[in-house]
Write a structure and sequence with these properties.
Helix content: over 70%
Number of strands: 0
Radius of gyration: 19 Å
Structural class: mainly alpha
Shape: globular
Largest sheet: none
Length: 204
């Protein structure tokens, strides 16, 4: 007996959601279809009813993660523009809680190590997501009085500092928790110092 289109869509979303979590926690290459489908609540044989290959699934996961990140950035930008408090901040991004929430944290950091080894379509999704993140940060800089070039250069440096600090902190937390915390702290201080310089009219 067949299933409805609605149920098929729900099943597909369950697979993508499970893959998103597992890929971030274990890495794309380390997750096999058996473990993935078990996590999603289905048998392995059902995978090909939804995806022609694992590469196609990875691309779907990346597109989903980048779309969610874009929504969050848009909400944060809207809140800032209306005088409210941003939904994201340096303190929140470079926090112990975010470091430990690998499965649901920033996809830019969560997938950074896997991107060079995934398919072209998934890589393109990641690249677009990064470009969108930088565009939101650039727009914020322009609103503060910077030229677009100044704002874009600052956005790249700022985001690289934040993502790099988070990735390195996660990399060493098991072996050296103190170093992991120090990396988060140093990253926060560096970004905030740069922000303060920008607020005082300095571009470097």
């Amino acid at each position: 007996m067949g299933i409805s289109r609605e149920q098929a869509a729900e099943n597909r979303e369950a697979i993508v959601s499970a893959a998103d979590r597992l890929f971030r926690e274990r890495g794309v290459d380390a997750v096999g279809l058996t473990a993935l489908m078990k996590e999603a609540g289905f048998t392995q044989g059902g995978f090909y009813n939804h995806f022609k290959s694992k590469d196609a699934l990875v691309a779907a996961v990346m597109a989903r993660a980048m779309a969610a990140n874009e929504d969050l950035l848009a909400q944060s930008q809207a809140a800032t523009a209306s005088g409210g408090k941003p939904k994201t901040s340096v303190d929140k991004y470079l926090s112990t809680a975010h470091r430990d929430d690998v499965a649901c944290g920033c996809p830019m950091a969560g997938f950074a190590g896997d991107v060079p080894r995934i398919g072209d379509e998934a890589q393109a999704c990641y690249a677009k997501g990064l470009a969108d993140s930088l565009e939101h940060m650039t727009a914020a800089g322009v609103a503060q009085g910077l030229t677009r070039e100044q704002a874009y250069q600052r956005a790249m440096a700022r985001f690289a500092q934040m993502v790099g600090s988070l990735v390195l902190s996660r990399a060493v937390v098991g072996a050296d928790p103190a170093l992991s915390e120090a990396l988060l702290s140093a990253g926060r201080e560096a970004v905030m110092a740069a922000d303060a310089r920008g607020a005082n009219g300095e571009t470097r």
